[in-house]
Amino acid sequence: MNPIALSMILSSLALGTILTVSSNHWFLAWMGLEINTLAIIPLMAQNHHPRAVEASTKYFLTQAAASALLLFSALNNAWFTGEWSIMNLTNSISCTTMTIAICMKLGLAPFHFWLPEVLQGLNLTTGLILSTWQKLAPMAILYQISPSMNTSLLLLIGLTSTLIGGWGGLNQTQLRKILAFSSIAHLGWMASILPIMPQLMILNLIIYLIMTSTLFLTLKTISSTKISTLATSWPKTPTTTALTLLTLLSLGGLPPLSGFMPKWLILQELTNQNTPILATMLALSALLSLFFYLRLSYSITLTSSPNTSNSPLTWRHNSKQPTTLLSLMLISSFFLLPISPLMMS
Amino acid sequence: MTLVHFSFCSAFTLGLTGLALHRAHLLSALLCLEGVMLSMYVGLSSWPTQISLFSFSLVPMLMLTFSACEAGTGLALMVATTRTHGTDNLHNLNLLQC
C-alpha cells in the first residue's frame, strides 16, 4: 500500500478511538466510531482477493447498522430527557437499544455471527488490529454507561457469549476462526462482570489485549493460519513455538499465568454477589474454550522435534520480522499474576 | 411523543427492519442504510427547533457528511464485490462461512 495512504489510514484509526474514548457528547463518540469503521475498511480490502472484499463488506454492513442504532438511541434519549452527555443515559428503552448496538459492534453473543467470518477473511496484521484496537472504543462507551444499564440483560449476553464462544470454537480448524471465538468468550466474561464491578472489566480487557496480541504476533512470526501448519512450525522459531504453549494456557486461564488473574477475580466477585449459578456456568464454559486451546497446544508443541509429524515439512527460512513487541507481549502474558495485589489496591 | 418523534422513529425502524430482512442485493441493503441515516437527519434537525437550542444546528450537517462518506464506502465496496464475486447478490458472499 502507498505509504502516504497507509499513514493516513493508521492515524485515522488512532484518531477515531481517541475521539471516542475522550468525548463526553454522544455525537462525538459516534463520530469516532464512524471514523474507526471507515478507516479500517481500506486496510481490510487492500488485497483484492474475494475473501478480503467479502469480509470488508460484511464488516461494513454490521458496523454501519450498529453505529446507526447507537446514534438513534442517543437521539431518542435526547428527545426524552434533553441530554447528550454520555454519562446521562437515563431512558430505559434507549439504554437497551444502546446495549444492543454496542454488543453488535463488539461481536457479543446474539450478534456475533459476523466476527468469525470477518476475521477469517483478513491477514494476521489486520486481524490483530480488528481484535484489539477496534475493541477499545466500544468498550470505553460500555464502561461509561455501565451504571445505568440493565443488569440482567448484560449478564444474559455475557453468559451466552461465553457458551457460544466455547461451543463454536470446538469444530474449527482455521486459527483465525478459533481466535474469533476465543475473543467472543473473553468479551462474554467482560460483559458479565461489567454491571457488578467495571474496574474488573478494564483489567480483563487489558489482559485479553495482551494475550490476543501475543498469539496473533506469534502466528504472524511462524506465518500459519491453519492447525495443520502449526505442527511444522517448530523448525522456524523453536523457542517461540515452545512458549506458545504457555500463551495458549494463559488464554485458557490456567493458574500460574496471567490469564488466570481476571477469571479468578471475576469468579470471586460473582460469588460475593450471591450469583453462584452464573459463576459456575462461566467457569464450566471456560472448560470448553480450554479444550480447543489445548488442541492447538497439542499440535503446536507436543508434536515437535523428537516425535513423528503427519504433516509435510515446510521450507525453513530465516524470519526477518521484528520480534521486540512479541517478546514484550509474551513476557507480560505469562508473568502478570504476581502483581495482582497491586492492581486490587 | 410528538408527531415528528414518532415519524422519525418509525422511519428508522422500517429502515433497520429492511436492512435485516430485505437484503437480497447489496444495493438494497445500502439503500436501507441511507434511509436509516436520513431518518436520523430528520430527528437531529428537528430536535433543536423543538427545544429552541440553535447552537445545535450544525450537528445534522456533520451527520449528513458522515453518512455521505459511509454511502461512498458502501458503493465502493459494492463495486469491489461485483468485481470479485460477479454479482452484488448477498447470498453469493458465502466463501467464509463456518
From TrEMBL, chain A:
GO molecular function: NADH dehydrogenase (ubiquinone) activity
Coiled coil, from the record: none
One biological process term in Gene Ontology: mitochondrial electron transport, NADH to ubiquinone
EC supergroup of this enzyme: translocase
E.C. number(s) listed in UniProt: 7.1.1.2
Cellular location(s): Mitochondrion inner membrane
Catalytic activities: a ubiquinone + NADH + 5 H(+)(in) = a ubiquinol + NAD(+) + 4 H(+)(out)
Domain NADH:quinone oxidoreductase/Mrp antiporter transmembrane: 23-288
Transmembrane residue ranges: 26-45, 57-80, 86-106, 153-171, 178-196, 202-219, 240-257, 277-296, 325-344
Topology class, membrane: Multi-pass membrane protein
GO CC annotation, single: respiratory chain complex I
Keywords: Electron transport, Membrane, Mitochondrion, Mitochondrion inner membrane, NAD, Respiratory chain, Translocase, Transmembrane, Transmembrane helix, Transport, Ubiquinone
Domain of life (superkingdom): Eukaryota
Secretion signal span: none
Listed InterPro entries: Complex_I_Subunit_2, NADH_DH_su2_C, NADH_UbQ_OxRdtase_chain2, ND/Mrp_TM
Pfam families cross-referenced by the UniProt entry: NADH_dehy_S2_C, Proton_antipo_M
Sequence ranges assigned to domain NADH dehydrogenase subunit 2 C-terminal in this UniProt record: 290-344
Purpose of the protein: Core subunit of the mitochondrial membrane respiratory chain NADH dehydrogenase (Complex I) which catalyzes electron transfer from NADH through the respiratory chain, using ubiquinone as an electron acceptor. Essential for the catalytic activity and assembly of complex I.
Family statement drawn from the similarity comment of this UniProt entry: Belongs to the complex I subunit 2 family.
Protein's name in the database: NADH-ubiquinone oxidoreductase chain 2
Species in which this protein is naturally found: Xenopus tropicalis (Western clawed frog)
Automatic annotation (TrEMBL), chain B:
GO cellular component terms given for this protein: mitochondrial inner membrane; oxidoreductase complex; respiratory chain complex; transmembrane transporter complex
Keywords: Electron transport, Membrane, Mitochondrion, Mitochondrion inner membrane, NAD, Respiratory chain, Translocase, Transmembrane, Transmembrane helix, Transport, Ubiquinone
Listed GO biological process terms: ATP synthesis coupled electron transport
UniProt-listed Enzyme Commission number(s): 7.1.1.2
Coiled-coil intervals: none
Transmembrane segments annotated in the record for this chain: 53-80
Topological type in the membrane: Multi-pass membrane protein
Compartment(s) where it occurs, according to its Swiss-Prot or TrEMBL record: Mitochondrion inner membrane; Mitochondrion membrane
PANTHER family referenced in this protein's UniProt entry, alphabetically: NADH-UBIQUINONE OXIDOREDUCTASE CHAIN 4L, NADH-UBIQUINONE OXIDOREDUCTASE SUBUNIT ND4L
Function: Core subunit of the mitochondrial membrane respiratory chain NADH dehydrogenase (Complex I) which catalyzes electron transfer from NADH through the respiratory chain, using ubiquinone as an electron acceptor. Part of the enzyme membrane arm which is embedded in the lipid bilayer and involved in proton translocation.
Annotated family: Belongs to the complex I subunit 4L family.
Protein name as catalogued: NADH-ubiquinone oxidoreductase chain 4L
Organism, scientific name: Xenopus tropicalis (Western clawed frog)
Taxonomic classification: Eukaryota, Metazoa, Chordata, Craniata, Vertebrata
